[in-house]
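Attaching the record inline, Q. Sequence:
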Amino acid sequence: MEVEVDDEAIFEFQALPPELRLEVFGKLKNPLDLKSCWNTCSSWNEALDERKKEFLLPKILPNIHSYLSRTDLRNCRKVCKVWKEGIDIFLQTSNSRTFFSSICSLEEFEKFMARLGSHNGNPFPSRKLMFGKFVRDSFLVEDENLEADNLYGGFPLLARKFGEHVSHLIYCLNSECQGSAEQIQAIPTYFRDLKELMFVEGLGGYAETEYIHTIKDIIENFPSEGLRMENLSSFKCFLHNGAPILKAIANQYGHQLERLHCFGNCVTQDFFLDYETRLTNLKILKIWRCSFSIFSSNYFVLSVLPLRVLKLEFTDDSLEIRQVVQLVNMLPGSIINLNLRVQCRSGIRELNNGFRELDPRPHLKVLTISSSFLEEPAWLYQIITRLGSVRHFRLNCPSYLVNFERDFNIRYVEEVIRMLYEHSPALQSVIFQKPRLPKDFLYDSLEKIHTIKRKKKRVPVLVSNAM
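Structure, as predicted:
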């Protein structure tokens, strides 16, 4: 479970009496070293006896946290019970933190609820709740003794007590949890002010059919008053079974949706054509893994044309270059933000020739290209010269660049920047994501590029290692 809780009660380490500071930290070889924490748990327990535990932990932990990462704290939490309890207290009461808990029984769940209820005011000031077990989620404290049935059995208790405070709900479907489908039915009853609802799957497999039908029923029976879903997303569990969910969403809340995220396999040929009149306010459309073995690119584009989409994110792993160009040329003219993530199988000659067929798009302001076929920057020339209205250009560099020599990486990026400067008169910013370039490249090579810049202005260039 993940609950965001805010509290202004942050204590200064210096406020502790010197004798208590010495008693606690004197037991540790180095309080800022995770290994010391692991190796001195018995000493830590001795220092934190029952009469001092309640006073010390909320005051000491924030100071250790400023030096240790949250992952370190969570790992340390498993080592000794006192430390575990202290981490629970700190993560629950610290400012703008996220509280993570693995519930082992309904009794422990009720204790957790009592701690939430002890807060003054709304225990969910961010109004967000993530519920479920993400086995592969590194941010969740794992517990080998976690009983999934009990965890999900406590959901109605949480919903009844705090559902009215939650407007953003992320529910993790877990195919190993008996009775999860029944527990989901508490959502429309107790979460009356939802603005965002997302179902994800926590075990990497596909959700069972009963969950799909249950979610479909929930969507169709949500009270229309008091529920305004701005971002109703379908994620992994809908990879193969999501078409009924999307249709239920469009039928019930299509006129309210501004953002829709879905897997391409969920989008049937008639989805957008049948529901274009209902998706009247859609502005952001993200389609992942949209395989054209299911329906042609022409049909897809014709389906999207009636929509007033401003931002389109599209991924596919089987497109030929001619299909990419055809897709871009046929997209609605209203799109100002285009994110293409494609894995083209075409050679460099086909790339260069294919992109010559791109039509100008005067309204396109933001272009993101992410692919593994960027063998040479030459093909980018065809895109840049034909999409000169782009103001912000982002390029996700291919992973193979990491294996090349440093000089090759620098030449690659320099060439792309030169083309952007020379052929994109409206350009305002350039971002390279994950190019694995040395920091001195920014100071040396970019300064050299700036010497051949346009006379009127300098275009900022950012090299980012984040996606």
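DSSP finds 20 helices and 14 strands in the chain. The mean pLDDT is 56.

More tomorrow.
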